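debug: dumping io for the single-chain case to check the tokenizer round-trip. Nothing else runs in this session.
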Amino acid sequence: MKIVAIKQTVTSGKGPGVFVGSPLTQLDVEVTNDSSADLVLDQVVVSMVYGSPQRLAAAVYEDGAVDLGGAVAGGKSKTGRYMFSVPTAQLSRVSLNVDFDGKHAAATFKGSVR
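debug: decoded output
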């Protein structure tokens, strides 16, 4: 599992809970299945925390957001695109958590997303 792209922008969507112009961190997360059996991704949950004390970053669902789901065949990869609102001053201290099913944390990425 790896982060293959990070992009900083601002929200532009419409609808309940959207604050146009808020900071937006977009991350592309790639899962590679190194086994021979299918890897089911239907229960994957990706979350981000930032700062000290840690705060949960709000998930943002702008056009282009794609949750991981379905199955990845053995030897293949699949990419999901996740978006979070993180204050600009906090971008150097975040943790991205990828959980497969509420019981098995697959990966935690810590560091800067600048």
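debug: round-trip ok. The mean pLDDT is 92.
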